[in-house]
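--- STAGE predict ---
source: upstream dedup step, 1 unique chain passed
mode: sequence only
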Amino acid sequence: MCGITGFFRAGILKDSDPDSLERMVQTLHHRGPDGTGRFVRPRRGIAMGHTRLSINDLETGDQPIFSPHDRFCLTVNGEFYDFKKHRSLAMAEGERFKCKSDSEIALTLYRKHGLDFVDHLRGEFAFGLYDRDEESLILVRDRFGIRPLFFHLQDDTVFYASEAKALLAHPDVPVKLDEKAALNQLMQVMVPGTSAFQGIRALPPGHMAIIRKRGERLELTMRKYWDLDFPQDADRPKEYDAQEHVERIREKLIESIVFRLEADVPVGCYLSGGIDSCCILGLATGAMQSPVKAFTISFDNADYDESAIARQMAESMQADHEMIHLKAADLYGKNYRDTVRFTERTFYNTLGVAKMLMSRRVRECGYKTVITGEGADELFAGYPALKRDMFLHGLKDPAERARYQQMLNESNRLFTGAILAEEEAHHPAWEDLCGFTPSWIQPWMATLKLAQPLLSDETRDLLAGYDPVAAIAEQIDPNMLRGRHALDKAQYTWVKCQLEGQILNWGGDRVDMASSMESRPAFLDHHVAEAATLVPPELRIKGNIEKWVLREAVRGVLPEVLYKREKFAFMAPPAHTDDAKMAAVEKLITETLSAEKIKAAGLLNFDRVHSFLDDYRADTDSVSLVRKDTLLNHMLTLHMVHEHFVTAGEPTQVAV
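--- STAGE serialize ---
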């Protein structure tokens, strides 16, 4: 795991560019405190920087990696698994390697396969590859967007980096919040491919950007090399052996975990009380044939705390278990602000703060990498919203549909307003795209209705005619939805929006790397994902049991109570749940939503915001409070983004 940054000009570099590259590199120090490297060729217009977190090949794996005579240069953030197989094949064909790192295999595969080399890469990664002879820079992001990669394109220059703050460190990149992105953040769901800043785009997962010189200009070509491709519903076999699917998922998951246990440093596990992380711990323990170090978050509210079940799982696996106990003082204040600096976007719940604190404890315990359970809910339909869509649009029997939906609403009452909408909502763009409006976006449509009246008059005028819900739908490839089952559509759209923009961002890479700690989500191996798409919808959600095929695949390593347990959303306790959190939030409101701060950002209206806050303080309805909590977090963090990156400017090095 590392940080990458750089830029590519159609002409020669400016005299000031080496110093600018140095500033960009230093902003990513937290992603790679073990070393830095640079590749600067002024006459070629290329400048590439790297910060290293040494996981594999601790002695000789420094980057950039470049070939003799400087034809190729490579900087990688992430891991390529199964690289030893490729190295062996290449060496048998006479290939010679400079180091023992997994990263170098990308150069070998590129020389052999050209742009099709990405098909042979397995893992979580984002990288830049410069080809002097082709006068091109290739930017690549992994299939699910586990590793971040942003870029800013001008006529004659492209700038790229693992984090937007590195781009903002170059004086040629403008620093301004994007008003459309601000509104989307207030409603929770970003438009895929965007960032919080004007002109800074996120490279979509499963894509590469090929940038070539064309005289005094640059030409950018986007190429999709992979997608989560569910079969056409009509093509799914009408008869199948459920056990075959169970065994295939078990086989692919074990293989994925074994690959992710390989490192030249110790590997631990994140452990919540859910099936996903518990089965990762169980299978990792079996693969290692020894106890695994496991890390668990404990909250100070029984309704949201899963630590008792995690402890039971850890004991059954004889894990070396570390419990991180978090209270209001931990989740707000400086830690809250720091999370915004590292994630560069808003968040609706302090779960991201909790994850950042857990990663900090992981590093304090001497670990640089952990295996995590992200992706299981996406691939095997674990979220309540996905269950609702299965019940509403995938079941034919009205009585069965109503019974299961009632059970779902009862078991998820605590999260109504944030995870599930209390009333069904519809949007024409999504109805056209999917044939229905996915349940996962419906609570955020309700949040949008609360947020829009809070905009300043200037922002409302600027965004007149902009529909943030439709803008999200417009970025979804309709070809991946046509003819698919309703559950496939719900899962696919969630993956394209919430997985990449939320779970893998402020719930994953960005808060883990704040402490220079690499997370490896084993479920998001593309071989596991491709096996999951073949599982019939009725085996992903069987009756009222979500993730049925996964439960069966890992049944032997789960305690009975966990095997039978319904999905419980992993969230930190919202502010309204106790006086200490409310007091901490009130302090943030005073510091962040003052008339001066709101005027400086120019996005919201002070009087309307504080009228909303008065209503929030007087509210006693649990559903309404959950929704208002989410919007309040978004307003606070939106202004912190402005304060960190626009008003004050981000420091050249982010303290770890």
